[in-house]
Amino acid sequence: MSNLIAIPHPTIPQQAETDDQVIAMWLHDRPAGTARAYDADVRAFLQSANCGLRDVTLGHVQAYADTLRDFAPASRARRLSSVKSLLTFAHTLGYLPFNVGAPVRLPKVENRLAERIVDGDDLARLLVLETNPRNAAILTLLYRAGLRISEVAGLCWRHIQSRQDGGQIAIHGKGGKTRFVKIGPKLMAKLEALRPADAVPDGAVFVSREGGHMDPASVHRVVKKAADRAGLPAHFSAHWLRHAHASHALDNGAPVHLVASTL
Predict the structure, then answer these.
(1) pTM above 0.70, yes or no
(2) In the chain, which segments carry CATH 1.10.150?
């Protein structure tokens, strides 16, 4: 007779009872804009499949992929990536017995980074033609600090600190991470010129017509108008300025790790 004693495996508690609960956990702690986009992606998929997550099959995912053939490759890849991510999460959680999205391949996306590198003369024209002090500071900050539109819109005066060699900005970016970006004395002077005498630490650096923070859409319009004024392509965006910051910094000999940490 064996002396071995069978030890029962611990029961893993059920993590979710409904699709909505799984989706909410999957989206937990993601930036608000990202969460909205991902939620819309998976809701569109479930509507297309016309069933709940537990009834989704590989055929449903492939059929949905076929409905996206008229989309640009990048848009198609993002939508499918959202679906695959949710299915992987639900399987890892134990909500689904199989990850039916695993076999689905994402479309290859053409690397068009080189098309978004702004020529130095074009960039200089974009900056010099902007006569509004607030908008000039926005454009310079997007380029010199490599910020995202949402980061510029959310800047408060407490995020900016003066230094002997200019200034430093604390940026609270994606994923709740904080990074610190140094800026030169000229840009620091542009920002200080916007600071009102009664500025409070939590006050907006870039103020809207209503007196609060500009929203990202308003910052986007500032960039688009400046690009049109400078004769740049209609699809020019703030992300081009971010790419220009990185490429010009590397061209000027900045260490790769420093550029990466700035971005």
Answers:
(1) no
(2) 19-93
